[in-house]
Amino acid sequence: MSNRIDVKKTYKLFINGAFPRTESGRTYEIKSAKGVFIANPCLASRKDLKDAVVAARAAQSSWNKASAYNKGQILYRIAEMLEGRRAQFVDEIVLVTGATKSKAEKEVTDSVDRLVWYAGWSDKLSSLSGALNPVAGPYYNFTVPESMGVIAAIAPEVPSLLGLIEAIAPIIVGGNTIVVLASTKAPLSAMSFAEVIATSDVPAGVINILTGKKDEIAPWMASHMDIDGFDISGLAAKSHGAIRIAGAENLKRIYSFKSANPGRILAYLEDKTVWHPIGL
Amino acid sequence: MGSPVSFDYAPAPESRAVISIKPKYGHFIGGKFVAGSKHFPTINPATEEVLSQIALAGKAEVDAAVKAARKAYTTTWSKMSGKERGKYLFRIARILQERAREFAVLETLDNGKPIRESRDVDIPLAAAHFFYHAGWADKLEFAGLGTSTKPHGVAGQIIPWNFPLLMLAWKIAPALAAGNTVVLKPAESTSLTALLFAEVCQQAELPAGVVNIVTGDGSTGALIVNHPGIDKIAFTGSTEVGKIIARAVAPTHKSVTLELGGKAANIIFEDAAIDEAIEGIVNGIFFNQGHVCCAGSRLILQENIAEEVLEKLKKRMSKIRMGDPMDKNTDLGAINSKEQLLKIRELSASGDAEGAQRWTAPCELPAKGFWFAPTIFTGITQSHRIAREEIFGPVLSVLTFRTPQEGIDKANNTPFGLSAGIWSEKGSRIFWASQQLRAGVIWANTFNKFDPTSPFGGYKESGWGREGGRHGLSAYLKGVGHE
Amino acid sequence: MSFYGLVDGSEASLKNYLGSLSGVDQVGADERAAMLATRSIKTTSKRWAIDTAISMVDLTTLEGADTPGKVQALCTKAVRPDPTDSSVPSVGAICVYNDMVAVARKHLDLVGGAHVGVAAVSTAFPSGRASMPVKIQDTRDALDAGASEIDMVIDRGAFLSGDYIGVFNEIVQIRELCGTRAHLKVIFETGELVTYDNVRKASFLAMAAGADFIKTSTGKIAPAATAPVVLVMLEAVRDFYQMTQSRIGVKPAGGIRNTKDAIKQLVLVNEIAGPEWLTPSLFRIGASALLNDLLMQRMKLDDGYYASPAYVTID
């Protein structure tokens, strides 16, 4: 048995490409499935959310302008980085959730594959969801899907990594930026995933990850006027009504999904239709 | 003959003989007209003449309509093949074409819009919407990514007074094509063409209960929105009411689409084709008295051409013919209601109070009815109320910009995002600007064009979803993977 | 020449002047013209419009088969379009080839039509393909024969090849030749210029060069005086007035065959250039068959029933 004292990681938030502590100084304790103390992740505050939204808004325009090819490559790059750190993610999932190693391995594998699947969507969206509309007149008229802006998301409690990726990937692939709240009970995957993002050519502010309490943060997200859409797939159905009511103040687009599908990407895109005369 | 002369077009009124308005109307429920209990008058806003008495639907009527729609959905409409459903829609399109004159006259009388517009825009487009969607009914499996082929069930639809029959078509045609049945409520002040449409449903032998029309005011609308027997709400109207509806349905299973307000920017770059841009500005804000959610109510001019454009615009506005909506030469009709007129006056007064300069085209206001002469405000900044709030009337706010980016930034500086206009003869600038603008419909070198194949709807507080085209159809089909 | 102070006669200044013009969006112009075509003109306004249109007609014959007899008959008709009704005004002018000018002038004077002008088509009409000395002689012949109006064609080939200064100089020379003897109308043949941008450019070019009128077409090429082309030209004269305080006339020619077409033209004039242009000194319609339709419609307004061609003269 070694006498070495291991170096434990401080789990922080991920905002604007940096890893700040919560400005509130609040944390909460998480324990392993066996009841052993693991970490004191941040309890993100309303101010942390605000900072994350400011970062996401600032990053949105240039992320949106990045070519579809570029966005696809960056998502694929995230998958590459995740693949390279499989072991760490498997260990964390096993530690926190008590899942079997093979189940955890499957989750990580699925996570990598899901990122690759969404990466491939970036340069197909316009051709599959856009349209050239045959209007009755001398006009060229087309509809293209465009990014909606800043989207908030609540990741499900489990699977903590795959659920997080399912929240992030479809939202950012179309040019949105995101503020996502990680699994409360199992935030390690999310905070380690932030390290993956930080080394994956993702521009600062495109993905922002908070940890904390759903009941606290979800209403703040719902009422924040500079958030355009909200994925509440990770929120218990019983609170959806109240969240939607709060979100109505700026008519946020609020959706909840059960599975991975292209509708999940399209939900946070706006269809823009452009008319132009055809003449000499 | 050397001296200037005046070419006064003599009145050219459209004949009213083609229509007959009943003194009193009921509701259209389960394929039959049923008597109403309470009634309120509907008037011709151009003359204040009472045209008829419209029924006010209460709980019993709305219940009956929803029940009829549910019965039609379960027993008939959902069991019918798409091919057969489509044929009914084709029939409706054809009958609307056949009876177009009747609808145009009735629309103009009830709404106050010029007969030229109801005849050339509203009614032909309404028929076109049915024709377009008819063809979708048996092709739902091709309706795009992220949608199923399953309808929602019973749709509750609430429409505004600015394009009464056209908005009805925008709502009913896709709903029926997708396999839903509907309960529709026309606007309080413009129910007549919806009730005439009920006759069209009868002539088309549409199965009873597939389309139900209940008339009434906001209280009737609230009964529809909150009715537990309805699966889908579609609303066109103000952002204020849209938010109320969004909150009301939030805790329910209902799917919602909202077409709400706007404060569209019409951006004129220095290299624009000026004369056509002037037409675009005029069409943008004075079409349908400015009662258009996508109206180009903010003119954003490049500063170096502002003077020239304003001078030409004022001359052009002096040619606008305001008056009897039934006259075929009328360009600008009556404001739809006294209430709306007061709103326009109030917001215009705020422009005066906040130091903007008002200019009104010289025109004589008729003695009776509700009228507002075409007006522009210059000296406007982003901070003026009149540059921010939807006015829904023939009033244009004029702002200027120095660089293209500043023009776009001003255009986007609003919680709305329904439409925008761009005028430039430079292709790359058009595409750049159309990408930058945060709005669902961009008219480049044109304005206020509509087509059933072209999706319409806004970003941000301008609403949820699209109407028209494949994108609009999907609002009446269940989403894939949605909870 | 001063060219209104807009250009100095050099190619550079002309390019600069033409380059400052805004473009024309074809679809927008078509829509505006189509919308104005829906104006409904009834009763007293229609009566006024018909008489005004008659007074604006340049009654035209431009056939290889023209003879003195044919031209004389036309002149008689020009002075008294309806021999049974003296309230019908004379037309604006007779429009003929230059070899018929003397015949027309003489006959008009003979039948009491001293007030009706004679317009001669000129500068190697209709193609404009001849040397400048030939064009000058062509014009001089017409002037010497008594033409009070010269309808010259521009060299479309030169225009389309970008030789704007060449086109400009031709107009300037013909203008000088006309002096105070005749009004100059400049024909663009818009069917060959094709785009509305070109129509607008040609309009401003011709106006600066000294045209008194700008005219759409020769009548030999279709499309000719379409409503949107006339609209673009009316916008040009309106804008030119704004710049120079000078009113230039407009003459659509070709394709205006009935009263409805003519009234649509008057509506365009009224709404685009303004009512100041509603006079034969600023608006003419080049036509032949149109006159009889105007007369028949006039009879219908008077009598309340439709007329028959048998009641109007075929001259």
Automatic annotation (TrEMBL), chain A:
One Gene Ontology MF term: oxidoreductase activity
Pfam families from the UniProt entry: Aldedh
Annotated Aldehyde dehydrogenase domain residues: 29-254
PANTHER family for this protein: ALDEHYDE DEHYDROGENASE-RELATED
Name under which the protein is recorded: Unannotated protein
UniProtKB/TrEMBL annotation, chain B:
Transmembrane segments: none
Keyword Coiled coil: no
Keywords, ordered alphabetically: Oxidoreductase
Domain annotation Aldehyde dehydrogenase: ranges: 37-477
GO molecular function terms listed in the Swiss-Prot or TrEMBL record: oxidoreductase activity, acting on the aldehyde or oxo group of donors, NAD or NADP as acceptor
Family the UniProt entry places it in: Belongs to the aldehyde dehydrogenase family.
Name of the protein in its database record: Unannotated protein
Organism: freshwater metagenome
Lineage, broadest ranks: unclassified sequences, metagenomes, ecological metagenomes
Automatic annotation (TrEMBL), chain C:
EC annotation from Swiss-Prot or TrEMBL: 4.1.2.4
Pathway where it operates: Carbohydrate degradation; 2-deoxy-D-ribose 1-phosphate degradation; D-glyceraldehyde 3-phosphate and acetaldehyde from 2-deoxy-alpha-D-ribose 1-phosphate: step 2/2
GO biological process: carbohydrate catabolic process; deoxyribonucleotide catabolic process
Top-level EC class as recorded in UniProt: lyase
Family matches, as SMART domains: DeoC (SM01133)
Keywords recorded for this protein, A-Z: Lyase, Schiff base
GO molecular function: deoxyribose-phosphate aldolase activity
One Gene Ontology CC term in the entry: cytoplasm
Catalytic activity: 2-deoxy-D-ribose 5-phosphate = D-glyceraldehyde 3-phosphate + acetaldehyde
Gene3D superfamilies recorded: Aldolase class I (3.20.20.70)
Family: Belongs to the DeoC/FbaB aldolase family. DeoC type 2 subfamily.
Protein name (Swiss-Prot/TrEMBL): deoxyribose-phosphate aldolase
Protein source organism: freshwater metagenome
Organism classification: unclassified sequences, metagenomes, ecological metagenomes
